[in-house]
Amino acid sequence: MGNIGMNTAVKNSIGTRAARVMAVLVLGLLIVGETSLSYAQTTRSYVIVDKQANSMDMGAQGQQEIETTTSTEIDVTKTGDRSYSIKITNIVIEGSPGGSMGIDALIGLESDVVLAADGSIESVTGMDENTGVAAMGGEAVFRERLQSLFLHGPGGDVSIGSEWSHETSMPLDQQGITVERNIDSSYECIGEEEIDGIAVWVIEVRAEIEMTGSGNAGGQQIDMEMSGESKGKIYVDKATGMVLSSEQEADIEGTIDLEAFSILMTVVVSNTVSSTTG
Fold first, then answer.
1. Domain range holding 95?
2. What does the alpha-carbon distance between residue 204 and residue 196 come to, in Å, rounded to a whole number?
3. What is the tens place of the pLDDT at every residue in 11-22?
4. What secondary structure does DSSP assign to 22-86, as a single string?
5. Which candidate in 9, 77, 115, 122 could, as Cys together with 82 as Cys, close a disulfide (CB 3.0–4.6 Å)?
6. CB under 8 Å to 48, separation ≥6 — which residues?
7. DSSP of 106-130, one letter per residue?
8. d(C-alpha 141, C-alpha 171), whole Å
9. Predicted pLDDT of residue 233
10. Range name among 72-81, 131-140, 156-165, 237-246 with the lowest pLDDT average
11. Are the beta carbons of 112 and 146 closer than 8 angstroms?
């Protein structure tokens, strides 16, 4: 009976830990984009909402379901030709088994962002002084989060029918597990619309996602392998190159292997970005 109780406790602990790992791994997962338009934007206020539903088959212990929602509010002010001041004004996390996991320390963070000519982030300041950056997954994850506001793209003019691709590979360390996350994305400008009187390009994005990792968590050797797909649309101000809004969804599934048993895990993620002129 003692072993049965231990296994139940271990499974529940590993399931919760796995949910925490996935919460960080997929935060910002769907908001890596690309285009190359001029950046004449002055000020915009953004709300980014990430919803994640984890379903874990715990074998004899049944299913474990965890749903979390993270809402992030960011103000963006243009300060130069390709430079911006970023301020995170609020973060609300609901349903997380680990609470805020320290990510709410990002509230109040002010950062200066400089873009390259193609819209990719060239430099970001203020990350070393804030513990929330580490809790979020480190500098690379934080930069990826901010990149969602500045589409970086095909290296030329965008028009209806333009297509391009984008690959990212990022090592992440979370909860004692080292994970390699690879995303292969494809983009197509499928049309133009008007949002609140602003002419926008409509960009369709699809991606294939692979995540593999291993490590020791709570004295247990863990190996994980996850894969999935995402799809959605990004709406870009034609005159400024700024993202006005986006909506994307991903379905990811795989296994978390321990020495004595395996957990089958399914993750459904949705991400929306909305903005208003400040």
1. 2-277
2. 20
3. 555 555 555 555
4. HHHHHTTTT------------EEEEEEEEEEEEEEE-GGG-EEEEEEEEEEEEEEEE-SSSEEEE
5. 115
6. 31, 71, 72, 73, 74, 145, 148, 271, 272, 273
7. GTT-EEEEEE-TTS-EEEE-SSTT-
8. 10
9. 95
10. 131-140
11. no
Q: Are 18 and 256 in contact (CB under 8 A)?
A: yes
Q: How many domains does the chain have?
A: 1
Token readout for 218 is 């709570």
Q: How many CB atoms sit inside 10 A of residue 138's CB?
A: 17
Contacts with 9 (C-beta within 8 Å, 6 or more apart), sequence order: none
Q: Is 226 helix (H, G, I), strand (E, B) or coil?
A: strand
Given this model, what pLDDT does residue 176 score?
75
Tell me, what CATH number does 79's domain have? 2.30.230
Measured CA to CA in angstroms, residue 180 lies from 14, 256, 267, 268, 271 at distances of 19, 14, 17, 19, 21
Helix (H, G, I), strand (E, B) or coil at 141: helix
CA 119 to chain centre: 18
Sign of CA dihedral 149, 77, 87, 44: negative
pLDDT value for 278: 60
Instruction: Give the separation between CA 172 and CA 191, rounded to whole angstroms.
Output: 36
Q: Cα dihedral angle (84, 150, 32, 175), rounded to 10 degrees?
A: 10
The residues facing 53 across adjacent strands are: 67, 268
- 137-141 LR contacts (CB < 8 Å, sep 24+): 137/24, 137/25, 137/27, 137/172, 137/174, 138/172, 138/173, 140/170, 140/172, 141/24, 141/27, 141/28, 141/170, 141/172
Adjacent-strand bridge partners of 48: 72, 273
Tokens of 79: 């300060």
Q: Which two tokens stand for residue 227?
A: 């894969």
